[in-house]
Design a protein that fits this description.
left handed beta-beta-3-solenoid, mainly beta, signal, four-stranded antiparallel β-sheet, Cell_wall/Cho-bd_repeat, five-stranded antiparallel β-sheet, elongated, repeat, 38% strand
Length: 564
């Protein structure tokens, strides 16, 4: 609620009263009752009416008939003026009268203050807001008001007297004037559409320095600090409420500006509604051969060598891949061989520009050289081998032409018989190649591990057959007690299993080659093998009981005709 008073009305009343009373009166005049009522009545006008009402009151008081006033019959210290009639004489004081407390004339009815003109917000039954002044709603008027948060806001009330919301195109100044007569420029203005109460949440407040969307025109409008629309320079990319739109001169957004878009110097991945897709992280391919590195949907161009999904690409200043960067390339201070698809060659050897490059498990170049012919070389000391890189093996084993050779600390090939290295025996032929597989020296067989040439001992399985080599590597034959168990190896050293007739006697070796003794059930038939492993036949007393085994060693049961 606001109250405004008409100072002009009060001023008009005071002037009219001072002019209606003689300055030298010693007696307070009495104003007729009807004149006082007239002042009081006119005091209810507007400020503009009050200015005219004051003059009218003066005229009214001045024109009042003298018979209705009580005029003093005598005036102290006055005398008639020559040339006038007594009744018409204007009294002129011969000396200054001494003012008394009661000398100031006052109206018999004191003027009252102008009645309060109320101003207030009002919500109509349909929920729309109005602003009432003296009970009447403002229409076609701009109101400046201080709201609850202390801010000064501008509101507009349309021709129907309701608070305006949304966009309004003002074409007539008479429709858009301030309450105090202030004029505003014509054009498009916007007023806040969100909220419930203009006094509290800004509903209907004039929008300034912000964008506003027109559903009807499907367009955006920039409202300046005065509230007036001005889309000058507001075409192209614009960020509105954390969304990006590509606007034409009319403020309409282009519908095809989605996906990766370059805005000024930055790149963003835009959804159909203009929001940035924050899920876009890491390397993103914008177009064929063009890459961006994204974080929360914002992409940046990175240049030089970049690893993307396990492949290496050399990116130019515009983010496109330099497809010419293949073959041997230096990346982060190391050399690699880059394939045409960006992958790296690994664990191999490649030739480029007359040079040979050895690549490790990570693709990094381990060494490079200008290749020469690989060949055996000989001098007065012995044989050595020249590699393709010009170096030669020394103090190591090297496989050359599919055979293993041992070289001493000076790089010369070893040869000629048994060679012990780190507790392991090898046999080197006269050619220097290490012997692998079976080796017969005199009457003794040895077995050397294929691939390494190491001499083997103990049980060995060769081509599915088990053999036993003693501590010297010699292959054993015949009966052998190994670890407290008897085994039999034939003349070729092969371990035997199952029934074996050895020197006219039958023996039985299980699947592991171990000779068996005592009762044995073999193929559903019982046999008895004595302590030497020999199969018995005929009558035998075993643990106090007599048994009879036929000529095949089968234990017989039931009635048997023996010796008959």
């Amino acid at each position: 609620m606001k109250t405004r008073r008409s100072l002009l009305l009060a001023l008009g009343i005071a002037v009219s009263l001072s002019m209606a009373v003689p300055a030298s009166a010693t007696q307070q005049p009495t104003i007729p009752a009807e004149s006082a009522a007239q002042i009081e009545t006119e005091g209810t006008g507007t400020a503009d009416d009050a200015v005219g009402g004051g003059e009218a009151e003066k005229d009214t008081v001045d024109s009042t008939d003298s018979s209705s006033q009580t005029v003093p019959q005598t005036l102290d210290n006055t005398e008639p003026v020559a040339g006038t009639e007594d009744g018409d004489a204007v009294p002129t004081p011969t000396q200054e009268p001494t003012p008394s407390v009661t000398a100031t004339p006052e109206p018999s009815v004191a003027p009252t203050d102008e009645p309060e003109v109320t101003e207030e917000w009002f919500r109509a039954e349909d929920g729309r807001w109005q602003y009432l002044v003296g009970g009447e709603p403002l229409k076609d008027t701009v109101l400046k008001d201080t709201v609850q948060d202390g801010s000064d806001q501008v509101f507009y009330f349309d021709a129907s007297g309701y608070l305006a919301t949304g966009l309004y195109n003002i074409t007539d100044k008479t429709q858009f004037k301030g309450l105090d007569g202030e004029s505003f420029a014509l054009g498009l203005y916007g007023f806040e559409t969100e909220g419930q109460d203009p006094r509290q949440d800004g509903l209907g407040a004039m929008v300034t320095n912000d964008w506003m969307f027109s559903e009807q025109g499907n367009s955006w409008h920039w409202l300046t600090e005065t509230g007036l629309e001005d889309n000058t320079g507001k075409d192209g990319w614009q960020q509105i409420d954390e969304k990006w739109y590509y606007l034409n001169g009319a403020g309409q957004a282009a519908a095809d500006k989605t996906g990766w878009q370059q805005i000024d110097e930055d790149w963003y991945f835009l959804n159909a509604d203009g929001t940035v897709d924050s899920a876009k992280d890491g390397w993103q391919q914008v177009s064929e051969g063009k890459w961006l590195y994204a974080q929360d949907g914002k992409g940046e161009i990175r240049t030089g060598w970049q690893e993307i999904s396990g492949k290496w690409y050399f990116l130019k200043d515009d983010g496109t891949r330099d497809t010419g960067k293949t073959g041997i390339q230096t990346i982060n201070g190391a050399q690699y061989y880059v394939n045409s698809d960006g992958s790296l060659k690994k664990n191999t050897t490649v030739d480029q520009d007359g040079m040979r490059y050895v690549l490790g498990a990570d693709g990094k170049v381990q060494k490079s050289y200008k290749p020469v012919k690989e060949q055996w070389m000989r001098n007065s000391t012995g044989w050595w081998y020249q590699r393709e890189d010009g170096t030669y093996p020394k103090n190591c084993w090297e496989k050359i032409g599919g055979r293993l050779y041992s070289f001493d600390a000076n790089g010369y090939m070893r040869s000629g018989g048994w060679y012990l290295e780190k507790g392991t025996w090898y046999y080197l032929e006269s050619s220097g190649a290490a012997k692998e597989g079976w080796l017969l020296l005199g009457d003794t067989w040895y077995y050397l591990q294929p691939g390494t040439g190491e001499m083997l001992t103990g049980w060995q399985k060769v081509n599915g057959t088990r053999y036993y080599m003693n501590g010297s590597g010699a292959m054993l034959t015949g009966w052998q007690n190994i670890g407290g168990t008897w085994y039999y190896m034939n003349g070729s050293g092969a371990m035997l299993t199952g029934w074996q007739l050895i020197n006219g006697t039958w023996y039985y070796m299980n699947g592991s080659g171990a000779m068996q003794i005592g009762w044995q059930r073999i193929g559903g038939i019982w046999y008895y093998l004595d302590g030497s492993g020999a199969m018995v036949t005929g009558w035998h007393l075993i643990n106090g009981a007599w048994y009879y085994m036929d000529g095949s060693g089968h234990m017989l049961t039931g009635w048997q005709l023996i010796g008959g």
